[in-house]
Amino acid sequence: MSTLRDYLAQKRRIWLAKQETISTAEPITPTAKVTAEGRSGVRRIRIRDHQVLSDSGADYAGYDLGPSSPELQLGVLGSCVTHIFLIQAAAADVVLDSVEVEVTATIDPKAGTPGFEDVPPSPQNISYTVHIGSPATDGEIDALFEAVERACPILSLLTNPQTITGSVVRVPAQREESAL
Question: Quick check: is 56 in a domain?
Fold first, then answer.
């Protein structure tokens, strides 16, 4: 069976090859499309050729068919931190046997309700803990952690102010069928 060490050796070869072309690389434009579906209200997220379902629990009229949007955001942060640990370990040739990232936050369901107008609806007190199995020294792991915190795009997205613009485009409404 292949190990994380085997994967990191492969990742290092690919990372080194990518460094040769990075100076001429063009910016990319990732796109995600999300559709609310019929009777369930489940949100189908489409990214490239992949699909992810997002839903709510019964307390928000959901069917618990997938993680909620805030839960997905925590998962996205954890996924990105994990991936950047792998990239940075491959780049620095640091041996890792295991990487597990746990992300937690607090969400106050009272947010925005009367008397709690100042409570933000967004997840708060976000923290993550990285569990690493490695024969590397503490100094190597500390350097790796610092490199991850500098390079992780989703960590940067969440910790640095962003400009996000939105718009609405009206499409024709569907006609309701009359019940007979």
Answer: no
- Write the pLDDT tens digit of every residue in 99-154: 999 999 999 989 989 999 999 999 999 999 999 999 999 999 999 999 999 999 99
**pLDDT at residue 177 above 80?**
no
Reported as type and span, the H/E element at residue 51 is: strand 50-54
* Nearest residue to 132 (alpha-carbon basis) of 121, 144, 115, 124: 144
Q: What is the DSSP string of 121-142?
A: SS-EEEEEEEEEE-SS-HHHHH
> Model's pTM, two decimal places?
0.87
The answer to the question of residue 48 being in a domain is: no
Rounded Cα–Cα distance for residues 100 and 133 (Å):
9
CATH number of the domain where residue 84 is located: 3.30.300.20
- Taking the C-alpha atoms of residue 144 and residue 85, their distance in angstroms, rounded to an integer, is 7
How many separate domains does the chain show? 1
Distance CA 41, CA 48 (A): 22
Mean pLDDT of the chain: 92
| Confidence grade of residue 179 (pLDDT, cut at 50, 70, 90) | low
Q: How far is CA 150 from the centre of its chain?
A: 17
H or E stretch at 155: helix 153-159
